[in-house]
Amino acid sequence: MNVRRSAAALAAVGVLAAAAPATAAEPSPSPKVTVPSGLYGKGDPTYDGVWRQSLTLLAQRTLGYRPAAAAVDWLTGQQCANGSFAAFRAAPAEPCDDKVKADTNSTAAAVQALAAADGHGIAVGKAVDWLKSVQNEDGGWGYYPGGPSDTNSTSVVIGALTAAGTDPADVRRSGKSPYDALPAWSIPCDQDGGGALAYQADKKGKLLPNADATAAGLLGALGKGFVARAGKAPARDTCAEARTRTQVADNAGAYLAAAVARTGHLTSALPGAEDQPDFGNTADAVVALAADGRTEPAKKAYAWLEKNAGPWATQNGPAAYAQLILAAHALGQQPGDFGGTSLVRSLNALGPAPHMDSAAEHEEKSDDDSGTGLWWIIGVGLVAGIGIGFLLSGRKKQQP
C-alpha cells in the first residue's frame, strides 16, 4: 500500500520483512531534518530524498517538461566524488566519508533521472563506473556494496545501465552479467508462486514470491528502467523453466497478469495486519506488464488505480505521483485527468516548477478553461483553414 522504494529504507526504521523489500513508510509530517530547497516533497528525506527526486524528474520528462534547474542541481549535488549516491546527504558540501552509506538503488535511480535530464554525462558516467565497481560475482547487485545480490537492486541497476547507453549484458563480473543473476530468483513453475520472482532467498535458501520483486525483475529481464512503453506481446503465456532472461520475463509477466486479473490490484501483507491493496506495487506492475506487452491486465490495474489511488498519492507525495505518471506513460494514458485529478499539477506543486514548451503551456491552460479554450482553438483553426478534425485529434495528445 505504500510507495515503492529501496530495500534499505525500511530496514533503517526496523520494519522490513525479508521478502518485502521495496515499500516505504509514509512521509513524516514533521521532518527530522530540514527539507532543502530544490527537493520535492515536505516529508523527511533521510531515507528517500534521492529516490523521490529521481522519480519526480523522470515523470516530468515523460511529459515533455524540462525539470527546474534547482531540482536537477539538488540531485547532482548529492553525488559523492566517487560517483555514488546515498539516500540523502544533509550536508552535500562536505566530502563523503565512512558515515555516508552510498547504495546501488539511489545511485541507479539518479543515473536514470540525470540521463533523461541531458547535459549530465560526466555525472552519469561516474555513477555507472561506481556501479560497475561494486557488482557481485554472480553478476547482480545488493543494496549496499558487498551485500548479497537481490532482484530489485539488480533490476534497477539494469535500468540505469540501459539509460546510460550501456548494454547490461556487457557488464560482467567473473564472467556473469546481471541477466545471468535473475534466473536464480525465479520460482520454479511447480512450486507455490511459480513464475514469480523472490527478492532473494531466505535464510533457509527458500524463494518466496514477491510481487514488487516480480515487477522489478520483469523490467530488468526486459532490459528496461522506470520509464517504459507498451511492448510486443510475449510469444507464450505459460510457465517454463527459467534459464534465460526471456524465460524469466515470460514467467514473471504471466504471474503478474494472473495476480491482477482477480481484483485489478496487488495486495501487501504487513505484520499483524490484514492483506490490503498495494497501490505502489500495482503502479509498478502496470509499467512492467505494459512493457511486457500484456496491455489488457495492465489497463485493468491502471483503471483500478485511477479509481482508488488518489488519496494514497496525496498522502505519500512525490514518489507516489511519479509512479502513477509513469504508469500512465507506459499505457499512453493522460495523467492530466486521473480520476478527475491532474497528477502532473499535483506533483509539480510539491517543488520548483519545471519549464514547459509552448505546446505544453497551451494544454495546461486549456485544462483550466476546457470549454472556452477549446472553442477558441477551433475558431482560430477555422480562420487559418485548418480542419476541425485535425484540431480535435490534437486534443488527444497527452496533457498535464
UniProtKB/TrEMBL annotation:
What Gene3D superfamilies does this protein's entry cite? 1.50.10.20
- Signal peptide feature range: 1-24
* Keyword Transmembrane in record: yes
Q: Which Pfam families match?
A: Prenyltrans (PF00432)
Give every Prenyltransferase alpha-alpha toroid domain span. 67-186
Swiss-Prot/TrEMBL keywords: Membrane, Repeat, Signal, Transmembrane, Transmembrane helix
Q: Which InterPro entries match?
A: Prenyltrans, Terpenoid_cyclase/PrenylTrfase
Transmembrane regions: 373-392
User: What are the recorded GO MF terms, alphabetically?
Assistant: catalytic activity
Could you tell me what this protein is called? Prenyltransferase alpha-alpha toroid domain-containing protein
Give the originating organism: Streptomyces corchorusii
